[in-house]
Amino acid sequence: MIYAEVMKSIEQQIDNGELKPGKRLPSIRSLAKQFDCSVNTIIKAYSELEKKHKIYSVSKSGYYVVERVPSGHSGSADTGAIDFLSAGPDKNAMPYRDYQHCINQAIEVYKEEMFTYSEIQGLPSLREELTRHLRELQVFTVPDRICVVSGSQQAIHLLISLPFPNGKKNICVEQPTHVSMIESLKVQQATTYGIEITERGIDLERLEHLFKCNDIKCFYTVTRFHNPTGRSYSNKERRKIVELAQKYDVYIIEDDYLGDLDPDKNQDPMFAFDPSGRVIYIKSFSKVMLPGLRLGLAVIPDFLRDSFLSAKFATDLHTPVLMQGALDIYLKSGMFKAHIQRMRSIYSRKAALLQKAYQEKLPSSVAYSVSQSGFYSTIRLPGLVKAEMLIEDLKKENVYVDDARKMYLPEFTQDSVIRLSVSQVEEELIEIGVQTIARVIKEQLNKVPQVKFISTTSYFP
Q1: For the whole model, what pTM was predicted?
Q2: CB 441 within 8 A of CB 368
Q3: pLDDT per residue as tens digits for the range 354-365
Q4: Which residues form the signal peptide (predicted)?
Q5: Where in the sequence of the chain do the CATH 1.10.10.10 domains occur?
């Protein structure tokens, strides 16, 4: 087809730099003359290129080349890089086109709300829909308790600073935990106690001691697919932690940001064991959809609602209406359910490939964690091999991993743990990447004094 030839010609000129970002493309009539085709053929070619976000139109001016944003290192065969560092959703599986339709529809449906200040708590229609959505996660609540937030991190940050009815001041967190939580604690200068995650989970006796003796206001936990270890609690563990919180008057902030990816419907959130307000449930749509949406929710108990909304008002007035409206439509349409089914399949397959590669490629002296979600896992390096040293050598091999040091409180710091995520790595590159990591570890082991190692098959730092 001639329009396909036109598209290919323009794309090649964009890719090789002949057509620079912002440059005006030839007029429709001149291009029709050049290719000896109809005007409609060129219009179709330009329309398809616009859908691919290669060009854009300006009314009464013409078509222009879109500015290309460098992506850094990408875990794709095209670049040769293997990116275990980035932890966003699989870019090739994101619902860009579906969500674009939802945004366009939201502009029509919510156009009046967009020109006024919206409700701090979130669009009523979206909160109604989120109530139905949460039921599938075994979170039963009412719209009045749901607060739409600009990403779950906003809810976490606000809750750290708010006074709780127990009158206590200190925070307890898992160790390690994600970087944004560490930074929030640091910025707010919160007195924080850590509880270490091991291959056996957390030490419940140690957690009870912390709750009993350290004026703990709340315990922050990622109950499913923990970042960075990938670990999930069992229902038995969840229930026991809730019982300890009830016994010692501690609140739980349960971050279930990847709960949608859990294929096991028998797994219940901590909220299910105490929906009264002892457990504050939060979740995000960033990791399973589009991070740029910055949309999340918090199920806030009645006694915190007013203070939470006042604090939220002070930070952003309200969460962007257009994004809320688009999510409302996306959930109602059934698109989200179909998307999550695809995501579960993709990530569970990648997780299995990663675990197999660990088992077959890593030296026996290396310990690792595994995750069914495919998002996160950790490797503890053996002997005197340090994460910083390994990361630099891996960069030379075009393999990228994350240094876990920043995920620890100062007194828990580890310098021999790296985090991997396969969420954005193509399946055929997972084994190759792990094989490279294994080879570089062996090379570094040969450079340092040999010590006696204890062989393990899995590990949670």
Answers
A1: 0.80
A2: no
A3: 999 999 999 999
A4: none
A5: 2-65
